[in-house]
Design goal:
Layout lengths: L1 E4 L2 E5 L6 H7 L2 H17 L7 E5 L14 H15 L3 E6 L1 H4 L2 H4 L4 E4 L2 H12 L4 E3 L8 E3 L16 H13 L4
Parallel strand pairs: 2-5, 3-4, 3-5
Antiparallel strand pairs: 1-2, 1-6, 6-7
């Protein structure tokens, strides 16, 4: 999944998991597959010639050299290093609390956050109601709104269609040219 809006592109390594399950879900194989899909779709669908992907750490301060967790040392950094040696422009892991600053963001075309509430609050702050959810890795273009079902809004007559219109527009933009 990639959310686009407010000048940001934020992909997620994991999506709707309880926080207690995120660490176990971040495996080398899953992270590598996710980064390859993200890189390919940035090139093929978003027409970014050489995508630069910024990878967040999982733990505060990206684990602080193992003091706050080893996922960065044991899983994330080795995958980033291996893919970078293959020529993918991936870097990290970056501490999530400083990754979304303008100085860091200017060096990337997309961010891979490790879990839902690490990456999406920033994007939704920048563009809620205008952002678009793009499902990556499919043979077709699939876009949707930047929020859930909004059941709390159903039937009250207060619908904001901005994200739906943005999703339709982006689908047309990403569609293969014939």
């Amino acid at each position: 999944m990639l959310l686009v809006g407010g000048g940001l592109r934020v992909a997620l390594a994991t999506t709707h998991l309880p926080l207690s399950e995120v660490s176990d879900a971040i495996t080398s194989l899953m992270l590598e597959e996710t980064l390859r899909i993200l890189e390919r779709d940035l090139r093929d669908r978003f027409r970014v010639a050489t995508p630069r992907i910024l990878v967040s750490g999982l733990n505060p301060h990206a684990g602080e050299s193992g003091y706050l967790g080893r996922e960065e040392i044991d899983v994330i950094a080795p995958v980033v290093e291996r893919l970078a040696k293959e020529g993918l422009r991936v870097s990290g892991p970056y501490p999530a609390d400083t990754l979304f600053t303008p100085r860091v963001l200017e060096s990337g075309d997309a961010v891979l956050a490790m879990y839902h509430d690490q990456g999406l609050p920033v994007l939704k702050h920048a563009a809620f109601g205008e952002a678009v959810n793009v499902t990556l890795g499919l043979p077709i273009v699939r876009t949707s709104v930047d929020h859930g079902t909004a059941l709390d809004r159903a039937g009250v007559g207060e619908v904001d269609r901005g994200s739906l219109l943005a999703a339709i527009a982006l689908a047309f933009e990403l569609a293969p040219r014939r």
